């Protein structure tokens, strides 16, 4: 089985909670996780735990298979536009932003990519999150993105509407 590399773009409160949950999970190697934040010094403690940390979103995207986009809704589309040259069809985008639809993301990055919306909560930190997930294609309980969120709590697949 392929070990997916995960990038968490924007490790504020929610991104950091997911990072903590993934680190405490037995499903993912810390070395397979990259975390970004403008103020990268806030992530310094994770470096000693084997997580890659950087302020360079493009570098993180290039090294990852699955991108958890944990940015504020007002800047997610702008950041995705900046990252578009580094987004290839083999990458999976997971937006954690409320109010930004899959179709809005597709307008920026194209519709040939796997795009998900996930609504976790900060209880991911202690593996108690309940995450609702939808995608621009059919997904199952064994889906790689579903597995990520099941490792930090429980997930359910819903329709976007």
Structure in words:
The chain has an 8-stranded mixed β-sheet with strand order 3-2-1-4-5-6-7-8, sandwiched between helices. Helix 6 (144-150) links the parallel strand 7 (129-135) and strand 8 (153-157). By secondary structure, it is of the alpha/beta class. The protein contains 6 helices and 8 strands. It starts with 5 loop residues before the first strand and ends with a strand. The chain has helices spanning 13-24, 44-47, 57-62, 73-83, 102-109, 144-150, and strands spanning 6-9, 33-36, 52-54, 66-69, 92-95, 114-119, 129-135, 153-157. The protein has one domain: Rossmann fold. The longest helix has 12 residues, at 13-24. The model has no long low-confidence stretch (mean pLDDT 92).
Summarize the structure.
With 161 residues, the protein is of the alpha/beta class.
Keywords:
161 residues; eight-stranded mixed sheet; 30% helix; globular
């Amino acid at each position: 089985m392929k070990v997916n590399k995960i990038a968490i773009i924007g490790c504020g409160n929610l991104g950091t909670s997911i990072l903590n949950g993934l680190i405490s999970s037995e499903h993912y190697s810390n070395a397979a996780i990259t975390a970004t934040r403008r103020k990268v010094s806030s992530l310094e403690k994770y470096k000693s735990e084997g997580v890659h940390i950087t302020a360079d979103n493009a570098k993180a995207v290039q090294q990852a298979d699955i991108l958890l986009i944990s940015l504020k809704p007002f800047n997610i589309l702008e950041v995705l536009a900046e990252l578009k040259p580094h987004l290839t069809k083999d990458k999976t985008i997971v937006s954690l932003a409320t109010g930004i639809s899959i179709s809005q993301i597709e307008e920026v990055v194209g519709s040939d990519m796997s795009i998900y919306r996930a609504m976790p909560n900060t209880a991911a930190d202690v593996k108690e999150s309940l995450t609702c997930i939808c995608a621009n294609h059919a997904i199952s309980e064994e889906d790689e993105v579903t597995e990520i969120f099941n490792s930090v709590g429980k997930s359910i697949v819903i329709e976007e509407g």
